[in-house]
Write a structure and sequence with these properties.
The complex is a heterodimer of chains A (282) and B (225). Chain A is an alpha+beta fold. Chain A is 24% helix and 26% strand. Chain A folds into three domains: 5-59, no CATH class; 71-151, Glutaredoxin; 162-273, no CATH class. The longest helix of chain A is centred in the first third of the chain and has 13 residues, at 19-31. Chain A starts with a helix and ends in a 9-residue tail after the last strand. In chain B, helix 2 (79-95) runs antiparallel to helix 3. Classes of the chains: A alpha+beta (282), B alpha+beta (225). The interface between A and B is medium-sized, with 11 and 13 residues. Bound molecules: iron/sulfur cluster (3 copies) and FE2/S2 (inorganic) cluster (2 copies). One iron/sulfur cluster is lined by residues 123-129, 153, 173-177, 218 of chain B.
Chain lengths: 282, 225
């Protein structure tokens, strides 16, 4: 296991609300499940007791202590789905995948689980695959659902980590830096100034990742000035971070969509604004 | 000071006093199970129910967790309270009839039968051990895991805990563990191991299972390789 990951995740979430749950969610999205070792590290890094962390992990069904497959199939067995024939659907999945509920196929492709009510009772039986809802599922659709998932025809909707490509809103030059990849994708290069000291700052361009790299770390929570390394203009926009209230730096994606990043070091505030404002569309 | 009325008697207590403590101060007996002096009130077993308020607004609350309020009217043995308490005791008997503590409570309330499906749980999830471990032993080695039907007590990942100091405190306070032998009645204790610093269950190999008061028991689970 990559030694830094858990500690980095904990550091990224330092002081943010909902601490433990968001850290656990981040660890799980990193590994696909919650490895014992990661939880022990998390306990050491956060100072929380392992007993408390374990209590939270085992309380929520969303967390898994066992490795999960690439695709997660959740069959609803809630009351409404049950009377609409969900047990037959579950049986069909069990038969076709050859695993019991709660298990993962040997090729690590599918994990099957049954859940109690997904809140869409009127459309039951409900099956959720990788965050995609299938309603009124019939037995003969099961093979098709599995086939489509296997072929990747349905892109998982839950996966909120996708790379962005941004430009300076002033000089319109690309801010992407392929020479300094973070998360295996080109990073976003900015100039960060704090207390009279300017240096390059590389941000992960993966939306959902909060990694960043700079040479001389500024004190945690200091508010910095983020500027375009090309034209040197301050990127500060007119909105404030919803997490900490500091100013946010604004970058342009395509067609006027914007990415806002909090100027406070270590703050998780990031916002993707996909609405096209006519003034900015080009 | 807060003045409240318990069974028609006025009593003044400090702010922060629970209804249970106020009633005990007046000498009204209220049975408790998950409550233990020296541990934070937890309100798990509901055995300490009392009725508060009057008329249609009257309701049952657990006295061990309910703070005294000015003017509060409390009844500790109304018909409704007695009925609820009996039901709770029957449920406790249904889940863990082997517990000496539950047997004693039942007999004190003249309950000789229960009307539910009989089970023989090892644990009634009263949380005494968890609070003992955290609050008195400062260890936090054991805790609740899972939820609903699958809720259980134990160490994270069911492996020996690094922070357990094997004091035996959890076993000492457990109402379900004190089944066969308990040092709370020293004259009946088998070996006295639990009263020593040497943890009772660590020596379990030298006893047979009959000697052990609980299976599975928290300390044994911790000990397991
Ligand atoms: S024996 Fe271990 S688990 Fe039990 S109270 Fe002592 S420290 Fe806690
Ligand atoms: S193990 Fe004993 S003390 Fe701990 S919760 Fe269960 S019954 Fe209560
Ligand atoms: S250690 Fe000995 S005295 Fe204590 S409960 Fe066990 S058998 Fe009884
Ligand atoms: S019972 Fe299946 S969605 Fe509610
Ligand atoms: S003693 Fe009050 S709820 Fe258990």
């Amino acid at each position: 296991m990559d030694d830094r990951t858990v500690e980095t995740i904990v550091a990224e979430h330092h002081g943010s609300l909902g601490g433990m749950l968001s850290i656990l969610t981040a660890i799980q999205s990193e590994y696909g499940y919650l490895p014992e070792d990661a939880l022990r590290r998390m306990a050491a890094a956060t100072g929380e007791s392992l007993t408390d962390i374990y209590a939270v992990v085992t309380f929520y069904k969303a967390f898994s202590l066992k490795p999960r497959g690439k695709h997660l199939v959740s069959v609803c067995l809630g009351t409404a789905c049950h009377v609409r024939g969900a047990p037959k659907i579950a049986e069909e999945f069990i038969g076709q995948l050859g695993i019991a509920s709660g298990e993962t196929t040997p090729d690590k492709e599918f994990t099957l689980e049954t859940v109690n009510c997904l809140g869409a009772c009127a459309l039951g039986p409900i099956v959720v695959v990788d965050g995609r809802y299938y309603s009124n599922v019939r037995k003969n659709q099961v093979a098709e659902i599995l086939k489509r998932t296997r072929e990747g025809l349905d892109q998982p909707r839950e996966n909120r980590r996708f790379p962005l490509s941004v430009r300076c809103p002033h000089c319109r030059q690309s801010l992407m830096d392929a020479a300094h990849p973070i998360d295996n994708v080109p990073s976003i290069r900015l100039t960060m100034s704090w207390d009279g000291d300017s240096q390059p700052l590389y941000l992960s361009s993966l939306h959902g990742s909060l990694r960043s790299v700079c040479e001389r770390e500024t004190p945690a929570h200091s508010i910095t000035v983020l500027a375009c390394p090309m034209c040197g203009q301050d990127l500060v926009g007119d909105s404030r971070c919803s997490e900490c209230g500091a100013d946010m730096a604004r970058m342009t994606i395509d067609k006027g969509a914007t990415l806002m990043v909090c100027t406070r070091r270590g703050c998780a505030g990031r916002r993707l604004n996909l609405e096209t404002t006519p003034a900015e569309a080009d | 000071m807060i003045t409240l009325t318990i069974n028609g008697l006025d009593v003044s207590v400090e702010k922060g006093t629970t209804v249970l403590e106020a009633a005990q101060f007046l000498g009204f007996p209220i049975p408790t199970l998950c409550h233990m002096e020296g541990l934070t009130p937890y309100g798990a077993c509901r055995l300490c129910v009392v009725e508060i308020g009057e008329g249609p607004g009257a309701k049952l609350v657990s006295s061990c967790t309910y703070p005294a309020e000015p003017g509060l009217k409390v009844r500790t043995a109304s018909l409704r309270v007695m009925r609820a308490r009996k039901m709770i005791l029957e449920l406790l008997l249904a889940s863990c009839p082997q517990s000496k503590e539950i047997q004693d409570l039942a007999s004190k309330h003249e309950i000789t039968q229960q009307r539910f499906r009989q089970e023989y749980s090892d644990c009634i999830l009263c949380g005494r051990c968890v609070r003992m471990c955290e609050e008195q032993m400062m260890a936090k080695a054991i805790g609740f895991r899972g939820r609903g039907e699958k809720r259980s007590i134990g160490t994270p990942f069911d492996v020996p805990s690094e922070v357990c100091r094997q004091c035996g405190g959890c076993i000492y306070v457990c109402p379900a563990c004190s089944l066969r032998c308990t040092y709370t009645q020293p004259e009946k204790a088998i070996c006295g191991g639990c009263a020593n610093l040497s943890p009772p269950c660590l020596q379990k190999d030298s006893f047979d299972d009959m000697m052990c008061y609980m299976d599975p028991c928290v300390a044994c689970e911790i000990k397991k390789p």
